[in-house]
Amino acid sequence: MFERLRHGLLRAVAIWGAAVVLLPAAPARADVAAVGVVEIPAGAGQGRIVGATVVDLAARGYEEREFLMSGSADTFQKTGTWYTNGQWGARRSGAVQAYTTRLLVERPADPARFNGTVVVEWLNVSFGADIGVEWSQSHELFTRAGYAYVGVTAQKVGADKLRSLDPVRYGQVSLASDALSYSIFAQAAEAVRANAPALLGTGAPAKVLAAGHSQSAGRLATFVNAIQPIIPAYDGFLVHGRGAGAAPIGEGVIALPLTARIRADSAVPVFQVESETDVRTFADARQPDGARVRTWEVAGTAHADAYGLAQYNAQNARDRAINDGRPISCDRPVNAMTWRYASNAAYHHLDRWVRGLGAPPAGPQISLLLGTIRRDGDGNALGGVRLPDLDAPLAAYGPTNSGGEITGACLLLGSTTSLSSARLLQLYPTREDYVTAFTRAADRALAAGHLLPADHAEAVARAGA
After folding, report:
1. Could you give the angle at which helices 339-354 and 453-464 cross, rounded to 10 degrees?
2. To 5 degrees, how large is the angle CA 69–CA 165–CA 71?
3. What torsion, rounded to 10 degrees, do the Cα atoms 45, 51, 55, 56 define?
4. pTM above 0.85, yes or no
5. For the chain, how big is the Rg over CA atoms in Å?
6. Over 218-254, what HEC string results?
7. What was the pLDDT predicted at 407?
8. How far is CA 166 from CA 8, 44, 51, 55, 349, in A?
9. Reported confidence tier of residue 21, pLDDT bands at 50, 70, 90
10. What are 228-263's pLDDT values in tens digits?
11. Burial status of residue 129 (CB atoms within 10 A of its CB: 0-12, 13-18, 19 or more)
């Protein structure tokens, strides 16, 4: 394997000239295959990173780098029967295959600012191209608190799209099938640890967290239940916006339970965060909070929202990776609930949890009646983790929408329907009444641990403005 890897990396140098080749700086864990990484020069191909963030990194003291990761990936097979409780058995199939994939890194420009934790995201490919949902929602937390972030192209469709958009820059990127994805994602964690000086610009991280949204969250559920027990790659998981099921472990028709809970005997913390859109399908997989599993259901939020969409549209207009770069627009205004506040709090608590500083605070479930979300007179959900924009509302926040050119996108983007002037005057006779109500709601969320102090300050200032 090492000989194959050496030839592949030397080939990359021949193509890019000044590229820096980096073999693992420390021995890989015995249960994770060794990998190598090579930085992609800034001017390679069209001279730009596909999927590069639209966030002003320099203003936040951050920088963006891009690497290729190469190795040999395992595939896996089920062992025994997989039950709803998530205590699933798996083994390596013995079929390994060489691969090269892409790592997109956002890191502090000053290594002294690194807080020791890396968030590794399984990039979402639901719409045929890599999308960093977790970065889009929580980059403000990551950059103010000193996290490093690594986005992993773990699936074939994402790799193929990169190669088609820039055949020179990404000509080496090749994933034979999604059956390799679990091994590749495990090896990404090892690459972060073994090649920290190159990837992160600093020493080895203290903790490495896995994260993924939607389709990627379904794969993380399978990773937690079946792969992590035999390849302990990550220190904790944030599973965002999954349904009741999980993803196949290989290719073809593989019997899976319709409902897949997170195994209660997980050796590492697993934090599930669900939007109101997700709860309708996730409800069958609800489980009690335990020593290693915590779940938040965030009322008023959608599977994707206006905050993230603004970033995706800007990226897509530049990269033209989806729908020839045209923006997504829906029949109604997209959900504008501040999901990012709950996401930031979840990462903060997960980081403390994996460091042995206590489990996250509990969050109440969104209220359901016969599978339907119960709502107040304004149309907003009852129960759940509640953000100040929901408890001092100016609008009704819905979980779905309609319209749009891309099938299924608006269904996930939710809606915002402004309350009538008469209703607003009834709720808040004066501007001061609104600011008071909002501040009290923000105080409650802060006290519950569902809102961080910095986000509390931002929210209250926004309400006052």
Report:
1. 170
2. 15
3. -10
4. yes
5. 22
6. HHHHHHHHHHCCCCCCCCEEEEECCCCCCCCCCCCCC
7. 87
8. 19, 9, 12, 22, 39
9. very low
10. 999 999 999 999 999 999 999 987 656 789 999 999
11. buried
Tell me how far apart the alpha carbons of residues 23 and 38 are, in angstroms, rounded to a whole number.
Answer: 8
Residues 56, 45: contact at Cβ < 8 Å? no
Number of domains in the chain: 1
For residue 322, the one-letter residue type is I
Q: Strand 372-373 relative to strand 36-39: parallel, antiparallel, unpaired?
A: unpaired
- Enter the DSSP assignment of 196: H
Instruction: Scan for tokens 């800007």, then name that residue.
Output: 314
Which residues share a beta bridge with 105? 65, 150
Cα end-to-end span (Å), the chain: 60
Question: Is 322 a domain residue?
Answer: no
Q: Kindly state whether residue 65 falls inside one of the protein's structural domains.
A: yes
- Please give the residue range of the domain that contains residue 213: 2-268
From CA 171, how far away is CA 157, in angstroms rounded? 14
For residue 184, CA distances in Å to 20, 271, 291, 325, 377 come to 21, 22, 28, 29, 48
Whole-number Å distance between alpha carbons of 428 and 424: 6
The per-residue DSSP string of 81-131 comes to ---TT---EEEE-S--EEEEEEEEEEEESSGGG--SEEEEEE-B-TTSS-B
Both tokens of 186, joined, read 């495990």
CA dihedral for 315, 320, 322, 325, sign (positive or negative)? positive
| CA distances (Å), origin 89, targets 9, 78, 227, 234 | 35, 6, 8, 18
Per-residue pLDDT tens digits for 39-66: 999 999 999 999 999 999 999 999 999 9
